[in-house]
Amino acid sequence: MKETNTKGGSFNTGFVFGKKNYTFMFIGLGVIALGFILMSGGGSEDPNEFNEAIYNFQRIRLAPALVLIGFAIEVYAILLNPNKK
């Protein structure tokens, strides 16, 4: 993958991350997306009527925790060394 240029130096034409990094990145994106999907909804059709469903466990605890876990997976994916076995 390394090629030599005319100035005598070398440059790498490969990807910055390995397959393992990208796998963890897509998993992290999926967890973040799931967290935002679980956070949505809970509104009421009638603006004069309050819906208590907006304060349930799914929207207050579970969804933000999934988003934070997804961001942690993304950080891990960036810091992961793909060449280490």
Automatic annotation (TrEMBL):
Recorded superkingdom: Bacteria
Keywords recorded for this protein, A-Z: Membrane, Transmembrane, Transmembrane helix
InterPro entries: DUF3098 (IPR021448)
One Pfam family hit: DUF3098
Sequence intervals crossing the membrane: 21-42, 62-80
Protein name, UniProt field: DUF3098 domain-containing protein
Species of the source: Christiangramia salexigens
Species lineage: Bacteria, Pseudomonadati, Bacteroidota, Flavobacteriia, Flavobacteriales
